[in-house]
Design a protein that fits this description.
- With 137 residues, this protein is of the alpha/beta class.
- It has a single domain, classed as Response regulator (Rossmann fold).
- The protein has five helices and five strands, in the order βαβαβαβαβα.
- The protein has helices at 25-36, 50-60, 76-86, 101-109, 118-135; strands at residues 16-21, 41-47, 64-67, 91-96, 114-117.
């Protein structure tokens, strides 16, 4: 008999649930395809604006949020503040083309786990998710 609290082995890999917040449709689709292809990871939602993102994230409670700064409505900082206040256990990773130090420092101060530059670090987000999914096994 398994110890209390142990998960029964189902033969399936544990899943890292991901929510993408990105207003550019092409970038959002690229992120969706890239992250959904990671074994053990699954995108559970996407949003283009701050209000929609906060509602979706708090309703789904993903393990990870990939969040841009500039959104169709509001900003990624609005989302980061709201999510960190209500659900600090959710890991938020900023991915933005606004990668200057002031933005990076503000994101980290507001609770982001890390900050990535879209032009230089886009694939590092995939590597991070893959490492998280592998360690959850």
């Amino acid at each position: 008999m398994a110890p209390p609290g142990a998960r029964a082995h189902t033969g399936r890999m544990p899943t890292q649930s991901i929510f993408i917040v990105e207003d550019a449709p092409l970038v959002r689709e690229r992120l969706l395809a890239m992250l959904d292809a990671v074994p053990g990871a699954h995108v559970v939602g996407c949003a283009a604006g701050a209000d929609e993102a906060v509602r979706g994230i708090l309703a789904r409670r993903p393990d990870v949020v990939v969040l841009d700064i500039r959104l169709a409505q509001g900003s990624g900082f609005d989302v980061l503040r709201a999510v960190h206040e209500e659900a600090p256990e959710i890991d938020v990773y900023m991915l933005s083309s606004f990668a200057s130090d002031p933005y990076r420092h503000l994101a980290l101060r507001l609770g982001a786990r890390d900050f990535f530059d879209k032009s230089a670090d886009f694939t590092r987000v995939r590597e991070l998710i893959a490492a998280r999914a592998a360690s959850a096994v």
